[in-house]
Amino acid sequence: MIRRFVGTRRRMSGWLCTRTGITSRVRKGTVPFSLCENRDSPQTVCLRILCAAIALTWCACGSRAVAEQPQGLAFRVGKVITMDAEDRVLNHAVVLTRSGKIEKVGPAAEVEIPEGYRLIDKPDHWLVPGLVEAHDHAAGSGRDLHDYVYLTNPGLRTLAALVPESENNKRARAGGVTTVLMLSGSGNNLSGFGTLTKLAGDNVDEMLIRSPGCVKIAQAGNPERYWYGVGRTFMYYNLRQTLQKALAYHRKWERYERGETTEKPEFDLFWDDFRDAFRRDIISLIHTQWYQVVMSSVDMLAKKLKLRIVLGHSTFEAYLTAPLVIEQGDVYVSNGPRQIHFDRRQRKIMGNAARWWQGGVRKLGVNTDASVVPQEELPYQAAMACHYGWKPYEALRGITRIAAETLMLEDRLGSIAEGHDADLGLWTGDPIDPRSACELTVIDGRIVYDAAVRREF
Amino acid sequence: MMRTACYIPAIILAALLACAAPAVCQDTDGEETFVVIKAGRVLTLAGEEYVGGQIVLVDGKVRLVGKDLEYPKTARVIDARREVVMPGMILARSRWELPSYSRSGIHADRGAAKEIYLDSIDFEPLVEAGFTAVCFYPDGTGIPGPAAVYRTAGKEATRDLGPAYLRITMSSPGRDKKVLRDAVEKARKEIEKVEKARKDWEEKQKKAQEEAAKKRAAESGEKPDSEKKDGADGNKDETKDPSKEEENKEDAKTEEKKPEVFTPPKIDPAVKPLVDWIRDKKGPPLLFELYRASDLRHLDQVLKQTPELPNALFYLYQMSSSGYHHVVADLGKRKSTVLLSPQIGQLPYTVTPYNLPGELAVAGCTVALLPSGDSTSGYHDVRTRLAELVRAGLPRDEALKAVTLHAAQVLGVQQRLGTIEKGKDADLIFLDGDPLAVGTRVTRVMTLGELVWEASQRP
Amino acid sequence: MRHRCFTFALCWCVLVSGFGVCATFAAEPKPAPDAKPAPAAADKTDAKKDEKAKEDEPKDRWFAVTGAVVHTVSGPTLHAPTVLCKNGKIAAIGHDVAVPEEAETLDATGFHLYPGLVAVGSNGLVGNEPPEDNTNVYGLSLTLGLAGGVTTVVAGNTAAKLTYGALEDHVVRRNLFHSLSYNRRDPNGRRNFRLALERARQYLRDLQAHEEKKKTDPKAKPPAELQGEDQAALKLLRHELVSVADANTAQELRDLASLVGQYRIRLVVRGAREGWTVAGEMARAGLQAVITPRTRRDRDERTNRPNGSSIENARILHEHGVPLAIIPLSTGTSTMGLAGRDLLHLPMEAAFAIRGGLPDEAALRAITLGAARILGIDHRVGSIEVGKDADFAIVDGDLLHYMTLTRWTVVNGRIAYDKQKDSLFNHIRPGGDLDAPPPRDDWPRRLGEGW
Q: Looking at the partner chain, which of C44, C132, C444 has a beta carbon nearest the beta carbon of B351?
C-alpha cells in the first residue's frame, strides 16, 4: 500500500515537479522532497503543507474551472415577478442569492441584506426569473444542427455539438434567456436526443443540466423534404417502428432489473437513452404542426406510447386540436416560431397562442425555434403573442414557469423561489415590452451579462 | 242601264286583281318560303312564353310568334310539339380552334376577322351545344383589334355577321394603361392632323381665290377693290363677260383642277375607332377587359381625361383574388354591360360563396355570360352553370337572356339576334326539355330558317 | 244576254275568290310584342350628362375626427381636439372648431391619433414604378400595411400613399433620390463620381466668372453645358437633389462622410450598421441615416476597434445629431407566420431603438416626421399640422406599445381601414376586451357577416 502510495505520490509529484520545473533537481536528489519518504519531522510537515498548498493552487489554476463559490447577490428592485406557486408579484422587494441558489424573496421592508452580499440597488427595475427556451437550435455549432444519415437517428445526442460561450449564447444571455433545450433539427423523423443546458459556463460540464434532455421527434412538416417519396404514411410507420423497438429494449432491461430474468440484455447505445423517455424522466419534444399532424402526435405518442410529449411549434391551424390536448391532460404546448396564422377560409389573422388559450389550453408557452427567430428575442415572441390576442402575464409565465414545467425542471427553474437556481434577469421594465432592456443576467448566482460593461442587446 | 251595271263588277274585279296580282304572282312563283314551327313551348325571351305556340318564319326571318296562328297550307311545317324552342345561344368571346399568339400595342385595325377561315374551323361542337353565333376575338394585350361575329352554321354567304367590339385590355395596368394613353394621344394627334390639313386647305383655297381674283382684276382692268369681292362673285363676273369666254374656260379649267372638296388625309387605321369616338362621339363598342377590381380604378383614371370614350362594356376575368365585389356597386351605377364566366366564386381568402353574376344583375348591370372555357365540355356545360346560378339567386329570365339577348347586346347584333321576335333572324335551337333542367339536350339547331343540325341524324 | 250573264257570273266568281286571296295576305297577324329598341344608349348619355353636371359643381369634402388624444409629433400632444379636414388636407385643429353639417365625422374617443406612419422602404404594398399605374388598390398587402398604421411608403424611387380603393393622390413624390454606389469594391466608380463632382464644381466657378465677365462684356460665352452624370452632380452641388447610398461598415461611412464634407452634397445613408462608431463624423458631415435597430452582425473580437452592430446605434446617432429614419428587418407584409419583423409592425422596430436608449419622442419621429423629412415630403406628411395631408393612424393605445392595434387608418381624409369592418383583425380585442371570445371556425358565411 505504501509503495503504491509512494508510487502515486511520485507520479503526482513528478507531474508537479515538471510543472514547477524542478524535475532535474529532484532526480539529482538535491530538493528535500521528503514527502517521498516516510518521515515526519516538523520541516517535513511544513513542506508537506506547502506542497499541498502549491498542489491545490496548481490544480485550481490548471483546470481553469471557476470553482470559487459565487458571491452572494442582493437585489433591491422595484418589482419582482416570482412566478411561484402563488403567482406573487412584489413591489419594492429584495431577492437574496447564495451559493448559486435563491436564498430569500420578500418585500424590502422585511428582508435584511446581510454583509458580504453584492448589492444591486435598482428601485425602478424589474426582476424576473431567467427565461427558459423550450426549442433552440442555436446553442451549438450551426453546421452540426443535424445528421441526415437515416430517417431516424436514435442514439445521437446534441450534447456533442454544444458550444459554450458561442456568440449566440452570449446574445441570448443579453436577452435574459438563461436555460435552453438544445435540439437537433427536424430534417428527419427522429434526430436524436436534446440537451438541457444553461447558457453560461466555460465548458459543457458547467453548462449542462441534463443530457439526454429530451427525445427530439419531428412528426411531419420538414422530414418530407429529406428524400423524395417520404410521406406521412411512411413517416408515422417509421416512427412507430423505431419507438416500438426502443420500447422493447426498455422492457427487456426492466425485466432484468426487476429480477424477472437473469439473462442480461445486451447494452446498445442506439436505444439506451430511450429508457429515460419511457420512464417519463425526460420529455419527448415533437416538432408538429397542422391539425392532422398534431392529432396524430397526441394519439400515437402520448396516448398509445405513453410518452410525456411536448408539442413544439403547434402552429398553423393546430389550435383546433385544443380539446384533444386538454383531454389527454399531460401534454404541454410550446408555440412558435410562427405567432400568426392567416386563416384563408375566413380571411382572418389568428394569433396562435391566443387561439390555444381561448381553446382552453393552460399548459402553454412560446418559443423562438432559434435561430429562425434570434434566441434573444424570446420575450419579443411573447410580446407578439400578446399583440395577437394573448395576455401579458400569461405570456411571461409561458416563457418562465410554464417553460420550466414543459422541460420538467420546474422544481429548480422558471420561478424566483427559495431553493431554486439563482437564474434571474434584471430588466428596465416589462420584460416582454421590446422597449425594456435586460441590464443584468444571473445564472447559478453568477452575473453572466452586465449591460453596463457592454450592451449586447 | 243594264250594260253599265254588268261592267261594274268587272271593273271592281279588275281593280282587285290588280291589287292581288302581285300577291298571287308571288305565291305561284315561290319566292317567299314559309316555315312554321309547331313547338311544345316557345321561349321568346322578349317577354312572352307560349305553351303550344307556333313560330312562322318567312325567308329565314321570324314573321309571327304566338298561339293559334294561321299560315299558308304550303308552308313547311316542323313538328316540334315535344320540344322547347328558344333563341340560339350566342358565344360572345371565343378563340375556338384558333392559335394563340402574343400581340401588344395599338392595333385597332387588325381584327380577328383577318384570321378566320370558316372552312378550317370545326363548328360542330358549338352547334351541338346550341350556339348559333360565335364571336372571335383577337389575341394579345393592349388594343389588339376588333372582334368578329359569325354564325356557326348555314350558307357561307350568310355567316359573316360583321365586326363587333374593339377589345381593349386593362389586365396588367402598368403595361396596358400606357398603351391606352398612347392610343388616345395618337388619336388626338390624328384629329389635329386632319384639322390642320383642313385649315391649310382652306387657307390655300382662300389664297388661291384671292390671287385669281387679283389676276382677273389686273387683266380686266377692273378696280383693285375687286379683290375684296369673294371668289364666287369674281367667278360670276368672269362668266358674265362673253369676250373673255376662252380665258374664262381656261380659268374654269384650272379652277376645276383644284379639288373643290376637301379630302382629309388618311387617319391611321390603328386608332381610327378612337378618333371616331373622340371626334364624332360614336364608334364601335369598346370592350374593356379587367382582371381585378383595381383595374377598373386604373381604367377610370385614364378615361377621366377622355370622357368621350364609353366606359360601360366590360369583360371580367375571374381569379380568386380578383375581388370584384368591391366594384359591383360602381358597375351597377353606370349601368354597365358585363361579360363574364358563369362561376359562383368565393370572396378572396375565404370560402364564402359569392354569386358575382347575380350580384351584378341585382346592382343594375346587364349581364352576359360565357361558357366556362373554350372547350367542348365547357360549351355543353353552360346551361348547367346557368342553372346553378339560378339556384343561387339569379332570376331565371336573366340567366337565359345572359347567353342570348345580352350576349347579342355585347356584340351589337341585338337587332338581328337574341330573341324570337318579328323581324329578327330565325336562329333557333330546339331542346327536349327545359333548357335549365338537368339532362336536357339540344335536338335541333336552325339558322336563318334552315335546320343545320339534328341530333337524330348524328352517326 | 247569255254572254253578258256568263261574264257577270265569271266576274263575281273571280271577285269572290280574289277577296279570299287578298284576305289571306292582307290580314294583320296577331300582334307580336314589338322588340323594344334598347334605350340603354340614350339613358347612358343622359346619365353621363347628369353626372358631369354634378362633378362640375365643386363640393368640398369635409372630414372630422373628435375625441382622440392627438400626437402632433411636431408640437404638443392635444387631448380630444377636433381635427377638421377639407378635401384631404388638415384645415383646423382645436377645441372650438366648427364642423360643417355635411362633414363625415369620426368619434375616436378613447383612442390615440398619430400621423400616418412613413416607411422608407417597402416591398409589395404598392405596385412597381410607376406605382400609379401598377398598384392594386384593393390588394391584401396594401390593406395589411394600413392595418399597421402605415400610410406612406417608398417603392423604388417614388413615395406613394396607401390609398385604398382609389388612385387619386396616390403618388406623393417621384425621383426621391439620386442613387449612389460609393464603396471600395468599385474604386473606378468612386473616382468617376468624384470627377463628375469636380467638373460640376468647375462649371459653377466658370458660371460665376461668366456672370462677372458679362457685366463688362455682354457677348461673353457662357460655359459649356454639362453632360450625363455631371448633370446629376451639378444638381447635387446645388442641393436640388439628394443622394442615397448603402453603407454599413465604419470605413464605408467614413468615406461617405469625407465625400460629403468635401463637396457639401446632401446624402442619406441606408444601413449605417456601424454608425455608432463614427457618429461624430457622420453628424459633422450632415449625413442622414435610415437604420434598422435589430440588424445584427457579431463583433469581430480579433480587432480592438469597436465594430459590429449595436442596439444603441439609434441612440448614439441621435445624440450626435444625425437625422434618423427607421425601417424594419423586412419591408414586406408577410402572412407566412413570423410576426413582428416586417412592415406590419413598424412601431416595434422603433421600440427596439428605445431599448437601446433612443428617447421615445425621437423614436416616434423616426417613423413619422423624421422619415418624411429624409424623403423630402415633410411638407405634406409626417405630423399633424394645418395644411398637411389628412393621414392618420388612430390606434387604441400608445403606438409604441406591443399590445396596441390600429383601429382606423385615414388617408387623404378618407377612412382607408377600419379594424372592426375588415375581417382581418376584428376578432382581436374588439373594444379593448382582453377576454374576447375566439371567432367561429365554421364556414361558409354570407357577405356582411363579420366580413
A: C444
